[in-house]
Amino acid sequence: MSAGTVLCRFDELVDGEARGFDPQKGGQDTLFGVRRGSRLYLYRDLCPHATSPMAWRKDEYLNRRRDRIVCFAHGAQFEIETGRCLLGPCIGQSLQAVAHAIDDRGNVRLV
Amino acid sequence: MKILGPDLLVFGVDHVPACCEFLIEYGLTPVGVTDQGGRFEAMDGTGVLILSSDDPSLPPALSSGNTIRETIYGVQDAQTLEAVGRELSKDREVRRAADGSLHCTDDLGFAIAFQVTVRKPYAAAATLTNAPGSPPQRGPNQVAVDPDAQIRPRTLSHVVFFVPDAARMEAFYHRLGFRVTDRFTGTGAFMRPEGNADHHALFFIQTPPFMQGCEHFAFHLGGPSDVIQAGSRLVAKGYQSYWGPGRHIFGSNWFWYFNSPMGVHVEYDADMDLHDDAWTPREATIGADASQLFLMQHREKWSPGGPPPA
Question: Across the interface, do A75 and B162 touch by the CB < 8 Å criterion?
């Protein structure tokens, strides 16, 4: 993934919700983010256990209370802020955080 | 002991409406489903029961967080049910529910139950094939492809478990008349119950204890074209493919696996091998070469030559 790639505008993201991104336009989301207030937590869409995409449907990466990331391959649960697996097949491992910044035009940009 | 295979898989889930939506899109028929969940059935009455994880009627949750709560096996008749009850009562408590079903735990703590099967006779067409060198199965003007075909899961095929002791699971189900059909070395065995010729109704994958649970379940569709057509519809609606479409070697079944809001994989399968006691189990090391004859991957609709000229 090239630095500088724009994923979306930050204000398009719904607070508290997740969204998948396909910056390489390969037909499969490879990154996903969760917006919490003014913060975006961005990770590779790659379960440390199953090494596979995690949503059950486009943009569905969270549990019902929207307080955990879930891999819907085998139910592993991750802390949103740290990406650390708290329960399930990859307990103790972590999602891979993706460096990004919000530029002065309000775009979420890979760095 | 004529056990036929799983009749019903019971899940206790975080997000009941999401699971209900998924299983309807998958093709199962909701029966008495409310906001609190309910049953989703294939054509023969086998199915999946979705309840909220805090529903008091559920057996306890596994410590791994996996959402499987109970596997209810169908047996041929009341005599078989009593035989299963006698065998299991030798070394564990077996509880009889008001509907006559027998409930206990297996040797690794999975809740299991047995009932006179709900599987009912049904008729559904086979996929007909025209193969040069053999008599045609579809005559002149009989068209195979229907883009709008209704594709329904026919019967619950199999369930696969992550287990901390695959040898112990194999020994336990052997007591109930299950036979090993094939085996992945160091991983686990494919097993079929005495009352079902399908290559496997159970498969075990050896894992650390913190992974214990259901890895996936599968319902049989009518044929490979159904698997690919139904799977393509899920992909088009944004559902997440995990593995497939492809064809397994052990069992020969066509497959396509999807992530699900239950946090287990859900598979479409078709055209599985049948076996009897004359079969000698094979053994292989698990891996891409041993588990799939081929794998096709989805690509957005495309045709050679590109779009028509503007």
Answer: no
CB B160 within 8 A of CB B216: yes
Indicate the number of domains in chain B.
Answer: 1
Cβ–Cβ contact B300 with A under 8 A = yes
Q: Is residue B262 part of a domain?
A: yes
Q: What CATH homologous superfamily does A6-110 map to? A: Rieske [2Fe-2S] iron-sulphur domain (2.102.10.10)
Q: Is the ipTM of this complex over 0.90?
A: yes
Cα first-last separation, chain B? 67
What are the boundaries of each domain within chain A?
A: 6-110
Q: How far apart are CA B61 and CA A88, in angstroms?
A: 13
Contact B259 A70 (CB under 8 A): no
Q: What is the pLDDT of residues B275-289, one digit of tens each?
A: 999 999 999 988 877
Residues 6+ apart with CB under 8 A from B83: B1
Q: Residue B246: give its domain's CATH number.
A: 3.10.180.10
Of A52, A56, A58, the CB nearest to B261: A56
CA pair distance B80, B224, nearest whole angstrom:
34
What does the angle CA A52 – CA A46 – CA A17 come to, to the nearest 5 degrees?
115
Query: How do residues B248-276 score in pLDDT, each as one tens digit?
Result: 999 999 999 999 999 999 999 999 999 99
